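Review form for a predicted model. The reviewer records the input and the model, then writes brief findings.
Reviewer: anonymous (R2)
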Amino acid sequence: MSHERSTQFSFTNLHHGAGGGAFGAFGVAGVLSVWKLGHGQEAYYLEAVARGVEDYYVGGEAPGRWIGSGGTALGLVGEVDATDLHAVLSGRDPSSGARLGQTHRVPGFDLTFRAPKSVSVLFGLGDPGVSRQVRDAHDEALEVALDFAERHVVWSRRGHGGTELVRGEGLIAAAFRHRTSRNGDPHLHTHVLVANMVRGDDGRWATLDGRWLYTWAKTIGYVYEAQLRHNLTVAMGVEWGQVSEGIADIAHIPIEVLKGFSSRRAEIDERMAIRNQHSARAAMYAALDTRQTKQPEPDVVELRTRWARQARGMGYDPARLRDALGRSEPADLTDSARLVVEDRLLGPDGLTRNESSFDRRDIIQAWCNSLPAGAPVARIEELTERLIDRHQTAPLHNVATVAGPAIRDVAGRPISALPPQERWTTFELLETERRALATARSLLASERAVCSEDDVLAALRDAPRLSDEQVRAVVQMTRSGNGLDVLTAPAGAGKTYAFAAAREAWQSAGYRVIGAAHTAIAADELWRAGGIASTTIARLRIGIDRGELEVSMTARCWSSTRPAPPVLAIWRVCSTRSPPRVPRSCWWAIPSSCPRSPPGACSRR
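Model under review:
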């Protein structure tokens, strides 16, 4: 199958999509990828997926099967028939051939659910009985996750400009389970082809509003993983390592074995290392560059024999897998344990650690990360509602207009956005913002880092290409005397260029200029483009707390396109007081990856 014509959005992780797994120290990869299908790509899934009934009963691949409640109305149940699949991906009734709704350019979506590498190894090296249990746990987790998805992503758009949202009845989906990566390693995963059509609650057919699918994809993947862990704990008594980004590996399977059966991941990492590139986009290109045609698989006996031989070559006897089984029993979360987790999630290092507010998806993901043995989806949703009902949780959607989730491409550029959603913050964070605003107000007109007119005019003469807006910004920052000024402008508006002129004025006036950014990459950009020695906000705080760096006179926070970074970091720096003997200095913080929320101490004057 050629994915080169497809579009993958930034919430997916190409490391995992290319055959990697979750390895703790070795690296964590995404659990669910979403691709737009091109016309004719359905043939890939129908080509020799099934190897016969015998393979099914020993844990091999099975024929595609219809899942999702939306196909029931069209009589799509049981094994996938090629003609029926072609019909629904073409937007037609498989029985009559009649067009269902309008013609659409995108036939459907490929949702790929991947088990962690340790689960795939247990599936590939375990005896037939173990393999069947792993396979069944995977299949059930997938079906539960898809049911969860149907309750959140089945929407269509109607009306002028697609402004009218219509609830859909369910997804039309075909699941194709695979057991190997392109390099032939154990890699239990299922492609779920979702047709791009849905019947609205008014009985009319229309295309699926894919925005909901994209924004909920990460959460759907977390739910699949949590349900899978629960299923395997119940069925086989396995223990789990730490959960990271929704994924955990089975304990007592050596990491060297996981690495050894991850040759596809190694190829991608090697290509990225050669290019000295490490971004999600670089991973995507590396995956495509190293992609090989998937070879026909040997029969299941030969495949399992080969995997066992490879394991022994790594110094691992597959019989040792017994050590990973029967080590634990499922146990529900006690009330006291639940309260401990809730307190952590509602504290400064929880849901508001990097964002000023959170939505239902964030809470579900946080709970999935907090349950190493997993849990049924219904239990996770119950825990989510309990946390929302805690008195420490402050609703925002009742008091302010909150922007909906944005859809972004792999470069981070916004493509579209959903309508406003329910969002919450914590009363603790609101109190922090209150203190931050009070600090900001106390610094207004405080004669901090004021430059003379001559110094400002000299800096402006050295920057003749500044626009009128940029000139006004430079004058405001260098002449206002405020301890905190906020400069907000779109990306590419020339903020760094304006700050370079302000830096020159401040330095001419004898001030020490320190730059601080939300990320190291942004700090490097400020240093390179603005000529300002810069660090991260976190590192600046550490320096101040340790007495390595003392700041006085003024603080200037700049947001490129969004509100300010976590206000606790800004407040702690803005409220720093230096002894009189310290030379006057000025600094500003420049966040490059900022939270989306109404709260924001540094987004106001």
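Findings: The chain has two domains: 14-329, 429-603.
Further findings: The chain has 21 helices and 19 strands.
Recommendation: see findings above.
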